[in-house]
Specification:
Number of strands: 12
CATH class of the largest domain: Alpha Beta
CATH architecture of the largest domain: 3-Layer(aba) Sandwich
Order of helices and strands: HHHHEHEHEHEHEHEHEHHHEHEHEEHHEH
CATH superfamily of the largest domain: Type I PLP-dependent aspartate aminotransferase-like (Major domain)
Bound molecules: pyridoxal-5'-phosphate
Largest sheet: 5 strands, parallel
Number of helices: 18
Shape: globular
Strand content: 5-15%
Radius of gyration: 22 Å
CATH topology of the largest domain: Aspartate Aminotransferase, domain 2
Low-confidence stretches: none
Length: about 400
Amino acid sequence: MNEADTQMKKNLKPETLITHFAEEREKYEGAVVPPIFQNTLFTFESWEAIDAAFDDRVNTSIYSRGKNPSVTIVEQKIAKLAGGEKARLFASGMAAITAAIMHFLNAGDHVIAINNIYGPANNLLSVYLKKKMGIETTFVSGNNLDEYKKAIRSNTKLIYLESPSSAIFSIQDIEAITQLARTRNIKTVIDNTWASPIFQQPLKMGVDLEIPSCSKYIGGHSDVIAGVVIGSTENMDSISVNEFELLGSKIAPIEAWLIMRSLRTLPIRMKAHEKSAIQVAQFLESHKKVESVSYPGLESFNQHKLAKKQMSGFSGLMAFKLKTNNLTEIKTFFNSLELFKIGVSWGGHESLIYAPAISYLKEMSREQFIAMGISVGDMRISVGLENADDLIDDLTQALETIQ
Ligand SMILES: *Cc1c(COP(=O)(O)O)cnc(C)c1O
């Protein structure tokens, strides 16, 4: 029995399995890091050998748009980490989301989705799939089971969740929703980017497919764009020969290899993000220039109890509202930060800040924007891996610029 088969049988904890699981070092002269398979195709010894390969094509390396060993090893690690049977890596989180959604839907089907999902996923459902395939989506706040019950139609095929959502951190009761879905023959998909498989295991709560964007915590070094879909062998094998191979959004072997590098430290990085994020959130909550902080890890968070019930930890993305509404003052605060870099995205080693007003003010007037419950003083920060005291010092000096 080779090393990989032995590891398959053991019930390894996350910190151990990311180092050892699915590695077949005896095949690579014992190299401690597997090589990058930078090749388009794989050759066979005979007619019979390639003929047999096609009989099991989802599990055999034939052509790298389908399967490549540098990619497979990472997929095996992520599937195991998330408590799923199989995983497939995609070129981006959006490619993974598109494949997962398309997998369960046919023209004319109906979807229920929460109303604060990731913007491009919302666009895919509410605009693109509606226009191209007549798929209708009912958006719900997601916080109350009755909303889903009321929204279900005879042609409802999918409930799409994002918990916690990356916009307002809304938490959905995953077990209650998947139970309801199963009784009505409806499939469930969840965007698990915020918590990552380290802090939340939705497949164990009955979700059919889980998608974390690997561009955030799983990659973690701000050097890879990728996504992954995780689920049962049945669903994943079907996705492999359909959405994966036909849409062709495969990940490059070197990017899969970079994710493998990142996975080695994912559990310890998540714990470090959590520790610093709680310190930063508590600091902001007690600061006199700050109106409120939105972070599922705070006891003051309105869904903290449910968050604690279904997650084992909290990541580093949060939002807070400044007391001031003076745009000049807000910009001075924003521009005074030195360690928090200005930019979109999150989940990397570096701390970031972004103000939703920058995007919204392009699309609507300040009055419309305020009517939506958003304020120019709303800030979103991603707490990175720097020292938390340094980050708090940086926020302190920037907050001092506000009168
Ligand atoms: C970034 C993000 C995605 C999309 O991931 P990409 O790799 O950028 O395509 C999906 N969901 C959430 C919550 C995200 O933050």
